[in-house]
Design brief:
It is a single chain. The chain is an alpha/beta fold and 292 residues long. Helix content is 44%, strand content 20%. The protein has a five-stranded mixed beta sheet with strand order 3-2-1-4-8, with helices on both faces. Strands 5, 6, 7 and 9 form a four-stranded mixed beta sheet that branches. Helix 1 links the parallel strand 1 and strand 2.
Length: 292
C-alpha cells in the first residue's frame, strides 16, 4: 500500500478548489493500492479559500499563513511533512488544476515500475479537454513522436509543476526547491535540471490525464518579461548540467534577443540585477551538486 501526500498551495483560488481538491478525494484516485492524503497551504487568501477548505475538506492538513509565501516555501514544507510522516510519494497540484479519475493510481504504478524517474506528470489538458495545455505541449510534443505503451513514462527534458508525482526518495536525494532564488516561478525547471544531474529522469505518462485551467490568466508585459526573461535566465544560470560561464554567455545573448522581441529595455535592467546575484547563484549550484 503506497502513501501519497497531495500538496496544494492556495491563494485566492476559491473558484477552483471544489474541482481541484474534489478530484483528489473523490472516487477513482484512492485505489486499493493507494492511501491519499491532502496537505493544503493557504497563502493568506482573502476570498475565503482557507475557510472553504476547512469546512468542505476537514480531513485535509490545512496550514494557514499570515503572508503570501510564494510557491517554493509552502511546497517545501509539504514535502518535508511527507518525509517526516512516512509517505512514499508527494503530488504537487496547482490550485487551478485537477485530476481525472484514476490518474493518480496510473502515475504511481508507472513510478513503481520505473524508479529512475524523479518526476512523472499526466497529460495536462485545457479545461473542457479541447487540447493540451499550451506550455505543457511545448515540453511534451517534441518527445511524443514515437508510438509507445501509454502506461509507460515518456522522457521529457522538463515539465511544469502544476501536476507532479515525485517519489519521496527522489526528494531525499535531490533536495527541496531553491526558495531564495525561485520563490514563485522557475523552481520546477531548476529542480528538473537538478534531477537529471543526479541521474534521474523527468517524464509523462500518457494514459493518465488531468486539467490545468489557466485560460483566465492575463499578464502585463512587465510580468511576462519578468517570468520569461528574468526567471528564465536565472534558471539557465543555475543549470548544473552546464558550466556557469557557458550559461552566462547564453544569457548575454538572450538579453539582447528578448529586448528586441519585447521592444523594451527591461531585460537590460534585469540583466544588471542577475549579475549582482552571481555569488548567490554559485552558492546554489554548489549545494545542488551535493544533493540533499
Amino acid at each position: 500500500m503506497k502513501r501519497v501526500l497531495v500538496i496544494v498551495v492556495t491563494f485566492n483560488g476559491r473558484q477552483w478548489l471544489e474541482r481541484c481538491l474534489g478530484s483528489v478525494t473523490g472516487d477513482g484516485q484512492t485505489g486499493h493500492r493507494l492511501v491519499v492524503d491532502l496537505y493544503v497551504f493557504d497563502n493568506d487568501s482573502t476570498d475565503g479559500s482557507a475557510e472553504f477548505v476547512a469546512a468542505r475538506f476537514p480531513q485535509a492538513k490545512l496550514v494557514r499563513s499570515a503572508e503570501n509565501s510564494g510557491f517554493s516555501q509552502p511546497n517545501n514544507l509539504g514535502m518535508q511533512w511527507a518525509m517526516d510522516h512516512g509517505y512514499d510519494f508527494v503530488y504537487l497540484l496547482n490550485q487551478d488544476a485537477w485530476l481525472e479519475a484514476g490518474a493518480l493510481e496510473k502515475l504511481v504504478a508507472a513510478a513503481c515500475a520505473h524508479p529512475d524517474y524523479a518526476v512523472l506528470s499526466p497529460l495536462q489538458m485545457t479545461d473542457g479537454y479541447q487540447g493540451l495545455d499550451a506550455q505543457f505541449a511545448k515540453c511534451y510534443r517534441p518527445c511524443a513522436k514515437t508510438p509507445q505503451n501509454e502506461h509507460a513514462p515518456l522522457a521529457v527534458p522538463r515539465i511544469m509543476a502544476a501536476h507532479w508525482l515525485v517519489p519521496v526518495a527522489a526528494v531525499r536525494r535531490i533536495g527541496l526547491f531553491e526558495e531564495e532564488l525561485f520563490p514563485l516561478y522557475g523552481q520546477d525547471d531548476d529542480w528538473c535540471k537538478r534531477a537529471q544531474y543526479h541521474g534521474l529522469k523527468v517524464g509523462v505518462v500518457p494514459a493518465a490525464r488531468a486539467v490545468h485551467d489557466r485560460a483566465q490568466r492575463k499578464e502585463s508585459l512587465e510580468r511576462v518579461i519578468d517570468r520569461n526573461y528574468r526567471v528564465g535566465s536565472l534558471v539557465r544560470l543555475c543549470d548544473i548540467t552546464r558550466p556557469l560561464w557557458e550559461r552566462f554567455l547564453f544569457v548575454c545573448l538572450f538579453t539582447v534577443v528578448k529586448a528586441v522581441k519585447y521592444g523594451s529595455i527591461l531585460p537590460f535592467k534585469h540583466f544588471r540585477s542577475l549579475c549582482k546575484m552571481l555569488p548567490q547563484v554559485r552558492k546554489a549550484r554548489k549545494a545542488a551538486k551535493q544533493g540533499a
